[in-house]
Amino acid sequence: MFKHVASATVAVLCLSGAALAQSPGNAVVFAVFENPEPHHGCIVSERDRDGGYDKLVLGRCDSPAARFVIDERAKRIRPAGRPNLCMSDTTGAGAAPFEAILRDCTPDGFGQYYTYNRGQNRIVALTEDNREERNAFCFYVGPQRGRRTAILNEPCNAPRLRTAQIAFFVAPASAVGAAGAGAPASPPAQAAPMAS
Question: pTM for the complete prediction?
């Protein structure tokens, strides 16, 4: 169902220019090109100006902040440049909507850690014993507010979410070329429509 879009995604991620040299060999990007609003790009971490948790937002695929490592052993997703941090959320630290954040990988009483489910192209929350639950939370692309498009979480099976909002395609960071300054992330040219 997603093979055509995933193939087109990888093709688009092979932008002109040299590969990102600083990327660890196993670094990946999480790209989204199909979304009802539409937004295109990759998950990037955005530093919090007030010293809080870094937020995950939609941004440029060629940004160093878009590089992550999927730690299969620990079932965590870590930023390539800061392996002490993990993808998490603000569940339990306030009111919904819950934002996707980066925080220390050691448990501190709130939030959930996330892993990548390759079969469903989803970034999925884990239980305390590192299992995916049937009613787990998934990351999705939130609404654009100003120049920022936040990555949020909701139950993976929420009736108002569409598959396009929660499907993230993984590609090696080494396949993402350094595009020219100011070049936006591009949508796939001939992407097949995604089934809902």
Answer: 0.75
